[in-house]
Amino acid sequence: MIVRVSDRVEPGYSATARFFHWLVAALVLLMMPIGIVMANANVGPAQDVLYHLHRSIGVILLPLMLARLIYRLTHPPPPLPVTVSAAQRRAAGVVHWALYGTLLLQAIVGWIATSAYRAPIWVFWMFKLPPIWPVDRPFSETLFGVHRAMGFIVLVLLVLHVGAALFHHFVLKDVVLRRMVRG
């Protein structure tokens, strides 16, 4: 994929990379408010539905992030425009890899915490995942705290990621965002 900037040609992301990016973004942006609302909702059927949705999306995100990581490792992203400074390149790399790692680890921590609590993990009410940890409520509560903290870390990383993309698009007026939108 090619994005033209004046008389230079800048490479864009592949359709596969864009698919992974936007699907993960949509699921994370859906999951975060569900997680916040469910944690603060009154105990009852509505809260149960939110927990099931949150867990179901997490079950989808884990293999999706693994596939995305494998794709990223086997298909390096296009180089950033030459106008992007070395410091910005390092910052972009740190934020991207932190997002990958945190999202993967958060899903695993959520699964272990839910297993240790012994809450069922129904996937969109179709099938149930097996527990992967023995029952241990105190350990589960600790891990749920870690899971919540990781959610705030993901939020900060997303703000940095989206903020940088918008800064490049609206202030610097370069092709950084367009590479992920149009390829």
Automatic annotation (TrEMBL):
<dbReference type="GO" id="GO:0022904">
    <property type="term" value="P:respiratory electron transport chain"/>
</dbReference>
<feature type="transmembrane region" description="Helical">
    <location>
        <begin position="149"/>
        <end position="172"/>
    </location>
</feature>
<keyword id="KW-0472">Membrane</keyword>
<feature type="transmembrane region" description="Helical">
    <location>
        <begin position="53"/>
        <end position="71"/>
    </location>
</feature>
<feature type="transmembrane region" description="Helical">
    <location>
        <begin position="91"/>
        <end position="113"/>
    </location>
</feature>
<dbReference type="GO" id="GO:0046872">
    <property type="term" value="F:metal ion binding"/>
</dbReference>
<keyword id="KW-1133">Transmembrane helix</keyword>
<feature type="transmembrane region" description="Helical">
    <location>
        <begin position="20"/>
        <end position="41"/>
    </location>
</feature>
<keyword id="KW-0813">Transport</keyword>
<dbReference type="InterPro" id="IPR011577">
    <property type="entry name" value="Cyt_b561_bac/Ni-Hgenase"/>
</dbReference>
<dbReference type="InterPro" id="IPR016174">
    <property type="entry name" value="Di-haem_cyt_TM"/>
</dbReference>
<keyword id="KW-1003">Cell membrane</keyword>
<protein>
    <submittedName>
        <fullName>Cytochrome b</fullName>
    </submittedName>
</protein>
<keyword id="KW-0812">Transmembrane</keyword>
<keyword id="KW-0408">Iron</keyword>
<dbReference type="Pfam" id="PF01292">
    <property type="entry name" value="Ni_hydr_CYTB"/>
</dbReference>
<keyword id="KW-0349">Heme</keyword>
<keyword id="KW-0479">Metal-binding</keyword>
<comment type="similarity">
    <text>Belongs to the cytochrome b561 family.</text>
</comment>
<dbReference type="GO" id="GO:0020037">
    <property type="term" value="F:heme binding"/>
</dbReference>
<keyword id="KW-0249">Electron transport</keyword>
<feature type="domain" description="Cytochrome b561 bacterial/Ni-hydrogenase">
    <location>
        <begin position="13"/>
        <end position="183"/>
    </location>
</feature>
<dbReference type="InterPro" id="IPR052168">
    <property type="entry name" value="Cytochrome_b561_oxidase"/>
</dbReference>
<dbReference type="GO" id="GO:0009055">
    <property type="term" value="F:electron transfer activity"/>
</dbReference>
<dbReference type="GO" id="GO:0005886">
    <property type="term" value="C:plasma membrane"/>
</dbReference>
